[in-house]
Amino acid sequence: MEYRQLHRFLIGIFAAVLSLALFWGANLMIQAKETPKRITLIYTNDTLGTLQPCGCGGRNTGGLPRRATYIQKVLSENPNAIIVESGDLAFAVNPAQPTAQIEAVADAFKYMNYTAVGVGPIDIRMGEHFYKVLKQKGIPVINIDTVETEGAIPYMIKEISGVRVGIAAFGAVPPDRRNDLELLKKRYQAFSDARKQSDILILLDQGNIATDEWLQENRNRLGSPDIIVGGCNRIGLNEPKWVGQTMIVPTSTMGEYVGRVDIVIDNDKKKMTYSRTLIDPVIEPNPDVDKIVQDYVKSQSVQTQTQTQASTNQALPYYPYQTCVGCHPAAYEHWKTTRHSKALSTLLQKEKAIPDCLPCHSDMYRLTKRITVSADQTGGVECMACHANVLPHGAEYKKKGDTEAIKAACLECHTKERSANFEPTTAYERIRHASK
Ligand code: HEC
Ligand code: HEC
Ligand code: HEC
Ligand code: HEC
Fold first, then answer.
1. What is the pLDDT of residues 113-169, one digit of tens each?
2. Which domains does the chain have, with CATH numbers?
3. Taking the mean position of all CA atoms in its chain, how far away is CA 192?
4. 332 CA to middle of ligand 3, Å?
5. Which of 142, 143, 244, 346 would be a feasible disulfide site paired with 171, CB 3.0-4.6 Å?
6. pTM of the entire structure?
7. Please, which residues have CB within 8 angstroms of residue 265's CB and are 6 or more apart in sequence?
8. Rounded CA gap, 353 and 363, in Å?
9. Among candidates 43, 128, 117, 49, which has minimal Cα distance to 87?
């Protein structure tokens, strides 16, 4: 080989080695510089058909139009989001019957781009109707059961900028099937499959299966979820609770809060930061979702009739307050001074004479499924709400003075959600008639 040839050859080799090294180094640099991946989990639970805040007990938080505004704001900060509700989307007065309410909730969820939902104890009372509506509206339901649940999927894996986010669910099960071993086996299998295929696993736990003990016992066999979104049983938490590597997040009811977990994946490290936002009147309602709500309310409005009559063909007959006035004028006059006598008027003023609200605001509706309205709109929580146990009776009746039934009646309507500040003793003193 001539000297010049050798020289060229060596330069060639040198150049090859150099470019290889450069390429390698650049490659290393790309790897080292890989930016952390950010994924945001937005979660809700137990919306319970609260399309709008009801105003009961001064409650003015929640509502899907405001929720939509908030979610859109989060999405504008980070479009890499997963949006879930752990379950109990609707609250039908009689959930066994299909209702339009679940359709309205599903329409709003679709608009908000929910990724998936789980199944709560009230959802399952709706039976196949629940699955049918959500399928029709295109919202994936995550649930696995031994009974046919048409359209539900055992788990979901969603790849977001290279991160595999899994969603698994332990949905609610009717009490008589809590010990169904076949069902448990299927659920654990789905959970462990989802765990194996995901970098981040979110578990929707309306079935209350993933307790602290469960997490500890099954950690090695099935793996642990990264985040658990439960149902009402986690309301008591103010901060997330950690069990090993699992973050159990606080929940709320009737859409009071929307929860959020910001997940940063930096090479192999995961960092999760929790926060939540009160859905209060400061948040402007989204007009599109507001329209879904208004259309629903319009479609549900119960026609008012003008004639009052006691109905006789009901399981529980309805005795309007007018039938008591003649013999109990003092009790009537006192009752007129309480808000109970205006409970129907409240709904009429708000244009909310709909089956979602009427059962607690109108005895007539509860017992006859219709309402009539007098000129001054008196009526609503009437004598029967507290005195059904002594009816009917006439002039020959001898007072028994048994007050237990009266006291038991209050909590049917004065629930924690609707009447948070209800204090039985002072409330009782307020509504009893001092006619003795
Ligand atoms: C589970 C029973 C229940 C249902 C269902 C219910 N309410 Fe109420 N509501 C109550 C009770 C009880 C109060 C009184 C709360 C208190 O003052 O502690 C109340 C109070 C209210 C008030 C406040 C009245 C005032 O002027 O202080 C408004 C408004 C109201 N409800 C509207 C609604 C609407 C609208 C719906 C349907 C979306 C609804 N409620 C459904 C039980 C109910
Ligand atoms: C929210 C519940 C509630 C409603 C509604 C209600 N009452 Fe009463 N009523 C009570 C309570 C409480 C007492 C007192 C019981 C006691 O402690 O002795 C009472 C007592 C009575 C008594 C017995 C009074 C006495 O002097 O012994 C009569 C009669 C009566 N109510 C009639 C009516 C009539 C008529 C209406 C409708 C216009 C009505 N109540 C609506 C709760 C209610
Ligand atoms: C024809 C008259 C008459 C009518 C109508 C009537 N009551 Fe009475 N009510 C009585 C008499 C009489 C008593 C017993 C009073 C006594 O012993 O001091 C009584 C007692 C009661 C008591 C006390 C019960 C107890 O055992 O402590 C309640 C509550 C009551 N009435 C509610 C009603 C309600 C509600 C209506 C309307 C649906 C109604 N009454 C209609 C005559 C009537
Ligand atoms: C059928 C449902 C229902 C039952 C049963 C019921 N309430 Fe109420 N109560 C309401 C509603 C609805 C309101 C609010 C009405 C409104 O402002 O429109 C209310 C309001 C009240 C208020 C505020 C009244 C005022 O004038 O300031 C008191 C106090 C109260 N209830 C006590 C009781 C007690 C005590 C009982 C049981 C003895 C009882 N309620 C049973 C539905 C009910």
1. 999 999 999 898 888 889 999 999 999 999 998 887 888 999 999 999 899 999 999
2. 37-296 (3.60.21.10), 303-431 (no CATH)
3. 26
4. 11
5. 143
6. 0.81
7. 36, 37, 38, 39, 163, 199, 200, 271
8. 13
9. 117
